[in-house]
Amino acid sequence: VQLVESGGDLVQPGDSLRLSCTASGFTLDYYTVGWFRQAPGKEREGLSYINSLYGLTYYADSVKGRFTISGDNAKNTVWLQMNNLRPEDTAVYYCAASPGKPAGWDFDYWGQGTQVNVSS
């Protein structure tokens, strides 16, 4: 069971970025997949999650309206589209997955993270 994030980069404020989370060893069809981030010196923050089987998506207030989560079960991949990025979005971004319906921000499997830096 493995989750691999990609797409992190150094961008300027106002730019957009799309992060990918690809699973191997299991299919995401029956899983809830979430995105988190952790900035230096701060606690890990849950951003969004999706469960395609139940047609569920959720966004934290901090990213609602700017970030969009989506997935393609055929590609076993979930994306996080991030628009209008701000310096405070700088963090390591992680994806995570758990079988079944969402259970808050408690996830069983985690990726290694991808770094996003927003700076002018």
The Rg value, from CA coordinates, equals 13 Å
Multimeric status of the protein? single chain
Distance between the termini: 38 Å
Share of residues in helices: under 10%
Average pLDDT works out at: 95
Q: Biggest sheet: strands, sense, closure?
A: 7 strands, mixed
* Secondary-structure class: mainly beta
- What string gives the helices and strands in order? EEEEEEEEEEE
Summary keywords:
7-stranded mixed β-sheet, mainly beta, globular, 4-stranded antiparallel β-sheet, 120 residues
In brief:
The protein is mostly beta strands. 0% of the residues lie in helices and 52% in strands. Strands 2, 4, 5, 6, 9, 10 and 11 form a 7-stranded mixed sheet that branches. Strands 1-3-8-7 form a 4-stranded antiparallel sheet, with no helix packed on it.
Structure explained in plain terms:
This protein is mainly β and 120 residues long. The chain is 0% helix and 52% strand. Strand 5 (45-51) and strand 6 form a beta hairpin. 33% of the residues are buried. The model has no long low-confidence stretch (mean pLDDT 95).
Please specify the SSE layout and strand pairing.
Blueprint: E1 2-6, E2 10-11, E3 17-24, E4 31-38, E5 45-51, E6 56-59, E7 67-72, E8 77-82, E9 91-99, E10 109-110, E11 114-118
Parallel strand pairs: 2-11
Antiparallel strand pairs: 1-3, 3-8, 4-5, 4-9, 5-6, 7-8, 9-10, 9-11
